[in-house]
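Predict the 3D structure for this chain.
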Amino acid sequence: MTIKNLIIFVIFVVGSTLATISQEIKATVIVNTDQLQMEALNSVSSMANDLQNYINNNRFLETQWEGEPIPVEINIYLSGGRNNRFSGKMFIVSKRVLDGPKDNQGQSINLRLKEDTWSFEYSRGANFTYNVLRYDEFVSMIDFYMLLIIGYDLDTYGELDGNKAFDNARSIVNMGAGNNVPGFKSVSNPGDFTKYNLLSELQDMKNYPFRKIIFAYYVDGLDKMASKKDETLKSLENILSDMVLFKQKLSGASVIMQLFFDTKAQELATIFSSYTNRDVFNNLIYLDPSNTMLYQDSRDGKLK
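Done. Predicted structure below.
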């Protein structure tokens, strides 16, 4: 082998290795310990750093990840601490990097998530291991949300591309329900915002059309906003009309629709602020009545 060929071979191997180890998520983790007693602080002193390293160095799917990691912000608020037993509330925001000029790529919040029924045992130096076939009261909760984020992100690049991630998230939900973990119960009223209902709707073929609409929202909408604004606004008008048709066929409340508008209400109100076609606001209010005042302010040019 010549020196030139050797150099090419090394570059190929290194490049292939880097591609292989590409991570799905780049997380920033903040842990708030203001509610803990002094004696409990040592047990969680490394939690933020350890959890951030676990997420950012873990592969949650076996498939090759393309593109940049998903930006994720995680804020955990701890309480309790007796005998290394903690309760926690967790707030998660994931973002989708939008197509656009390299020096001015925007980001859109893809998911806003909240976990307020989390209890676990934790001590400093905990060893995190990714295993969707074994339930761990701390790390499995994290894995569930990371898989949900990955699935939602993949759905914005290809129709129904998030299925594998949602399958793995379902495994965690089933294990949590089997272990009677609060927040993972499998019995609830249709339309209740639970992990079980969310995964059930995401995996139900009758809801595939809504997931495809979300794909269009990004690919035919937000990704083109920087270069073709007028065309994009018209596309978003049509997308909202498609959502109206979808909702009209529903027999009850939709968890996936609620999550979409919980995440996107402010974004939509900003995009359509003072828009001349009033039908857009009628559709938004029909789709998301809980944010009626926000859409009315958008219509009237009163957004602050």
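Residues 229-248 form the longest helix (20 residues).
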